[in-house]
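Researcher: Dear colleague, please comment on this protein.
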Amino acid sequence: MHKTICSPHRREHIGIHLLSRAISTDAIHDSPTYHPRCHAGTRKVIIEIIMKWIEDQEPSEAVIWLHGLAGHGKSAILQSVAELCESMGGQPAASFFFSKRASDRNKGHHLFCTIAYQLATNIPTIRSRIDHVMRLDPALPQKSIQHQFQKLVLGAFQQINTDDLFLHTPTIIIDGLDECEDHDAQQSILSLILDAVKSHSLPLRFLIASRPEPQIVECFSAPGVSAITRQLALDDSFQPYDDIRTFLNSAFSDIRKRKGQFISSDLWPGSDVIEYLVSKSSGQFIYVSTVVKFVDAAFTDPVKQLDVILRSSSSRSRIFLNLDVLYSDILSSHPDLMFLRNLFVILLTPSTHGRNMSIFLIEDLLGLRRDTLLLLLGGLFSLLEVRGNLLSIAHTSFQEYIYDEARSGPYYINIHRCSGYMATICLTSVTNWILNPWKRYDTCIKLPCFADVSHPGHFLSRHQHLL
């Protein structure tokens, strides 16, 4: 689909040829790079909602923001939508899949060049305008993303009667915006798109997926944005456990057919094992897809491979490599390792394990002001579940990761010492409250347990049910 429009030896469309040298081919949905897609029969409800919006000639919202926690399958949904659209006749007009680990897909300056190139390919009427812009300024790909957007995207549609261009508003798909390495770039990209859509100067619709990171939430919470945006939260309302069960049953059925010489029962691995894995997934497709990939590894006995998964094993560091990379990437972007370790001790200590923790208690134990705590929590919301003022770890698989030193490295928490660490934090917090009950801090220090209180007795009265 995305073939080079012209030869460098021809003057016709030389601007498009120059643009083609600045794009990220791997970021496009039909590139040779593998982009995961939804398993057949899964994610039907969310895909149907998105497809109805794409097929609607006059949707009430020009932007859909699909957001969800890490590993919940956002990229697979958008890849499936892109392929489904293409099979139905030419949509999407453009796509870009960010990836933190790919140098040509983790920076904002590749985005609008890649989108503009696809627009020129898929909408012939504006091809000459994009070509003209690049002829006038061949250095555009090296300029700011604001300048690229204004010239290559907005400029392509200026002084053109869009009613004559197409009967149906084209869709742009942008996945993994949170994996663009610069937070300021993420906000700039969203601001450019949302402002253009609000002013009705851009006859495009946008499907954007990301984790609900604070800098992105801030953009979608800006005044006037809600009127043009539909937010879809990829949560339990879309029945991820049913889809995961469907995926596992289908995957293991396929393994039985191909590797029957290793399997003695037609019922393998059994409904109890399926339900165990569904429960362990915490709604994460990346967890079960990793399990299936390991069980189905070439030149191995799938029964023995599954047994490794089901029992505690030191080999987990290689089994869940993809999952570990995901978690390590999220944690490595946080600036305060001491805060991470103390937060996870509080959330995972045996006395609180499995319970939601009050954010008031956490701020008192860590001795942080509310605004500082929320700032430090900002990059972690893809791992945490927030319900009102209650906080907890969202994924069972993350707990296993953080308890395994071989997998988590510097983020490792020794579960056998958690109670001792927690006791130290509590004692330090109470001691500092006694010494200075009004003192509040902006940063975490070693054993950061200084009570944020407004009057004597505040800490004890707030948490007397714990005494």
